[in-house]
């Protein structure tokens, strides 16, 4: 009997009706983690609270480990850079709200079996690094280039395919400055933590997390569209498995509410006492600035405008919003809905696809206002 | 119809045979997180990788928020201290391996329904703070004191009981110096992160995590044994619900192995290629120093001695161990077992109790060595 990769790696599937979270989903949920929603109160997510998703293992890169970022393919001057070399390029710091493409997956019905995110797979950090366009200019991209492929040091198997994690960006995105893609070496002013890509990662403001390749070790300019696993098999929007599907790219608009009151330990059910409640939260979109947030306290039957926080110049980060409410005894379903400058908004019904990507259905927060 | 706490807070229960992880357990798993086992390679767990368990919400304490730690009850000189006041007391830094009492719960059969930990609810940090015994000496404990009660700022409901998180230590532990209990204000040389108790927490080296009260705001010396929820209802070892049960206190011995090779994304199944493999991991016990680690590559049928890392003076932190192995194609179940200086060791069969506490059954890591 042979021992082959394919024996350990099952195809994608949907959970059966009523099927609980299985041991494989639990193993992912225990490793990866979301943002506890009460910490949406921070403009910049404190260390350790930002969501983390690692496809395989976190590579072990102790301080002092030699590290090279190579830039090659269809370029005139291939580069091999240490992290110290990167410090000699211009440095840019950008505040970025980063969200996993699978955020909201475990709320879908039927549930795609994968990392079972609820709604917390998000976080905001200040990323510092070198604009990718400057590195590509230094390497001098040749004519005919179409895609730029990024390879991380994380290694594993998905659906029978052994791989280093790889994703590509179209050349015009990789060399553009809106958003300005970074090869980042610092997060919130400190070297990258291991789980966020130490020593180097890509940051693609406005795009879902799968584009922000961690433990970045190679950039290859290609003259054909990249067809790697994470580009053409995973991270596509499909209704049926045989579809080619649309690629997952930018972050769909979303508002999240800080659940008010206090929780029951086990159920996380929320309770509060009668009186004024400052409902608050954050909203973001990878397509255009958020221009409107509406709040409902009656499960979406009626909506009121929330007050947006001031524009603070952080185009790629979430925006604060507030809405005063006076709670009286009863049961409520709170909700918030973001709309961006392009008119994109959030659906009330789930936008289902087989991968469970980009589910920006409106968050619903049941609360009980207790008797006085 | 009234709106009462009890309606939102269900009694403890065990999962039915074959019952998958439910939405309530998933909500806890998505917030709280374990240590990804590959990061056992770090002597001190990097920020954000240390396990986190929060019973309720993480209190929001922005920098500059006034904070007082009160010390009262059966004392001659009640204290009210700011974090800055604490800096005028002698400062101690201790490297501590901290483990959740519920680590391993989700591996139990039947499964107690609560935070569904696998085996990663552990981490090691350098905690800096004031020895509690010095604060109690300053307050001057009166005769007749038996327990010292610690109250955090985290507020919620458990099984119908609304509470601030509270736990007590016997007076002799609170005033002892082996272990030396700390009121900690720094973790790995930086102010405590929000999820680890900012601005102050208790650290009780050798004890499970429930004793290390976070967001600490009050210390009360009591002349009767403390009967709060977390002391007498939760965190007891019981076979049947009606038992009083033994209290959960110190950390039972455990060894964990860094799973070798590389994973399948979805199943986390491990694969490696034929050749030498340096099996490695950590081992700890809250009762006495770890003196022996054994490794099995045949599901516990045979055991070999692992090589322990040097004694490094960090009595309350995990100890490194290594064991060389040469993998040939086939399927294996790896295991490691720690024994401490008191002769305590790990069981091969689950030590079951209704709360799912202190499950230190030997870890089992299936791996497939692929054909060459």
TrEMBL record, chains A, B:
InterPro entries: Ig_E-set, MoCF_OxRdtse_dimer, Mopterin_OxRdtase_euk, OxRdtase_Mopterin-bd_dom, OxRdtase_Mopterin-bd_sf. It comes from the Bacteria. It holds the Pfam family Mo-co_dimer. Its cofactor is Mo-molybdopterin. Keywords: Metal-binding, Molybdenum, Oxidoreductase. Coiled coil: none annotated. Residues 275-367 form the Moybdenum cofactor oxidoreductase dimerisation domain. Residues 57-229 form the Oxidoreductase molybdopterin-binding domain. This is Sulfite oxidase. It comes from Streptomyces nigra.
